[in-house]
Amino acid sequence: MELNRFIETFGAVYLTSRANPKVTALSKLPERKFREATGLYLAEGVKLTGEALAAGIRPETVLFSESFAVTDAAVSLAEKTAETGAPVTVLSDSAFEKVSTEHSPEGVIAVLPTGGELCRTEGFADWQAGRRLLMLDGIRDPGNLGTILRSAEALGTGGVILSDCADLYNPKTVRATMGTLFRLPVYRTDDPLGIIAEMRQNGRRVYAAALGEHTLTLGAYETRDTDCAVIGNEGHGLSRDVIDACDAALRIPMSGGAESLNAAAASVCILWEYARARKQ
């Protein structure tokens, strides 16, 4: 489809200048303070944009570069965008590059609202009742956070609790989730000890991935669908307060000289064991 026809068909706004105020504002969204101020974040690329639209999320707008807008893939995404009632915006390639955080941008970016039904900060008592949870405390690397969230969805986790973690809407986090962010329930808290206590009061068993006075070995105890494992910071692990607040510590059996696994690998091991045990 020719560019002018694309613009006319979808009633797109066409912005050509890198200095345009809207382009400038969009280019600031990779920074956390601007995401928090606007309540918006960026999901870049064909896959993430398509996943967001398929999940029923209504974008603030979807941005297309002028060179991508003439492709069949762009037309398909623009049609899906129009179905949500969201506007379509076309940027000159130069303006699009100012907004994009990618070295080789694909030519499409969904501008999405933060929060929503999947991301809660209150009302924990009835959150994902009866389903297995994973709690992350102090995961600071956005790529690790996104990878763990993606693994959690793939291995059947009902939801993930975040405490003192990297920003959920950091571009690296969003990219690493590969669309999981649009489907997996997340609960954010500043009170990990309070949340652990509430889970235990509600009958959940909570296990800290660490060595402690009462340590279980992964694969050597009977799992429950309502269990929650807690994974700590990449470098320092979990604090003593968090470990002590849990029912027990949880050890991943290892051989060789390795003393520990990184947070993403530890999460996968634990979640895989729970998924395996459930199938059996």
Number of helices: 11
Based on the structure given, which CATH architecture of the largest domain is correct?
3-Layer(aba) Sandwich
* Straight-line distance between termini: 52 Å
As laid out across the biggest beta sheet, the strand order is 6-9-8-7-12-10-13-11
Order of helices and strands: HEHHEHEHEHEEEHEHEHEEEHEH
Q: Please provide the count of β strands.
A: 13
Q: How would a crystallographer describe the biggest sheet?
A: 8 strands, parallel
Q: Radius of gyration in whole Å, from Cα?
A: 21 Å
CATH homology group of the largest domain: SPOUT methyltransferase, trefoil knot domain
What is the compact description of this entry?
The protein has helices spanning 3-10, 21-27, 32-38, 46-54, 72-84, 93-99, 142-154, 171-177, 192-201, 240-245, 263-279; strands at residues 13-15, 40-44, 61-65, 88-91, 108-113, 119-120, 133-137, 159-163, 186-189, 206-209, 215-217, 228-231, 248-251. By secondary structure, the chain is of the alpha/beta class.
